[in-house]
Specification:
Strand content: 15-25%
CATH architecture: Alpha-Beta Complex
Shape: globular
Number of domains: 1
Radius of gyration: 18 Å
CATH superfamily: Spore Coat Polysaccharide Biosynthesis Protein SpsA, Chain A
Length: about 240
């Protein structure tokens, strides 16, 4: 099964909301770049034939030194991919250069370092049956549709989920979905929406609330608190 599974980790973002000279994926969390924490989870899962990392072309040289010189990641496990202007284009670029024997692809945000190894393995197990799977969480707060600062309507909370990565797909399904979006000019919020657009149902698993996406400085503060808690828990178990 290992030779049929690939992972795509998106790390080509500019991180403009951080308002920092260091892009968010390379910012330090517990002394280590955020994207390194993320990649290590996928390596630890030990189920991937190839891990494709999308990067901004201007970050290629720095990232290669980081991955292969400083952190000694096995080069034969990785394919470094030029990112596009959007995340959607970056994922398509990675799909285009994916190994020819691929069957399953798992797509994950490089700035979600708290994904659990068990979750990565679980979503791969389930996608063989369901074909398209995403993690998410039922929303806790009341959600309203608002236009020009006025409430249009209140959405029924019992049907609403916050959707996040990792997301896993049969390769041909996600590839066809991206190709169709390219042909029609459709821009989606995530890869699962592209699959929904071609009529394939997406199965949703309840994930960990710790699996946050670090996009701004407030998120980074939350991430530091989660990391501290997890490190303390590990030390206590010892």
């Amino acid at each position: 099964m290992k030779n049929k599974i690939s992972a795509i980790i998106t790390a080509a973002g500019k991180g403009e909301r951080m308002n920092s000279s260091v892009k968010k994926q390379f910012m330090l969390l517990a002394g280590k770049p955020i994207v390194i924490h993320t990649i290590e989870k996928f390596l630890k899962a030990d189920i991937f034939y190839k891990i494709l990392v999308t990067l901004n072309p201007e970050d290629m040289q720095f990232a290669r030194k980081l991955f292969f010189n400083e952190y000694k990641f096995p080069q034969n496990k990785f394919i470094i991919v030029n990112g596009g202007e959007t995340r959607q284009q970056s994922v398509l670029n990675a799909l285009e250069v994916s190994p020819s024997d691929r069957d399953i692809v798992v797509i994950h945000d490089g700035v979600r370092p708290f994904v659990k190894v068990e979750e990565i393995k679980e979503i791969v197990d389930i996608v063989y049956e369901k074909s398209a799977v995403s993690y998410g969480l039922p929303v806790k707060n009341t959600i309203k549709s608002v236009t020009h600062n006025e409430v249009v309507n209140t959405l029924p909370r019992e049907y609403l989920w916050e959707i996040f990565t990792p997301q896993a797909f049969r390769f041909q399904i996600i590839y066809d979905a991206h190709q169709q979006s390219l042909d029609t000019g459709f821009f989606a919020n995530d890869d699962a929406e592209l699959v929904e657009k071609i009529g394939v149902p997406v199965f949703v698993l309840e994930g960990s609330p710790e699996n946050i996406k670090i996009t701004d400085k407030f998120d980074l503060k939350i991430a530091e608190a989660i990391m501290s808690k997890n490190m303390n828990s590990t030390q206590k178990r010892r």
